[in-house]
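Lecture 7 notes: from sequence to structure.
We start with the chain below.
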Amino acid sequence: MAANSPSDSGKNWLKIGIIAFVVQGSWTLWANWGHGLVKAAPSALMQGVFSGISASIMTLMMDKFFHLLKPSKARPAICIVVTSIGMALVLTLLHILIGTPEIFKTLLLPCFAIFAYAIGYTSHLRTRGASL
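Predicted structure tokens for the same chain:
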């Protein structure tokens, strides 16, 4: 059985979500610490929750894009770019809405992580039998 079936993609969603919550929430707390805990904590909590949820959503999105698009050399790039930009835009809007003081500094690590995860997971799809 191929490891890229829809049921396989969600196996580790809880573990990935917890790791994303802790890492990204901690980063956001640190990035905004200079503005005090009252300002930093809501941003850190939102970032942690969003990161935990978005890791699962990204996995499902990339699975869908990868399997719906015709095999081509552009398919992996489309999966990576569409998913990364979509998640980064949602994240930016959420931080604007809640008033995160250091938006650019806050988004450095999460946006890098979004892009790196998209590359890694799309590569995983290609190597696990999803033909080009």
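Points to note: Residues 37-68 form the longest helix (32 residues). The chain has a mean pLDDT of 84.
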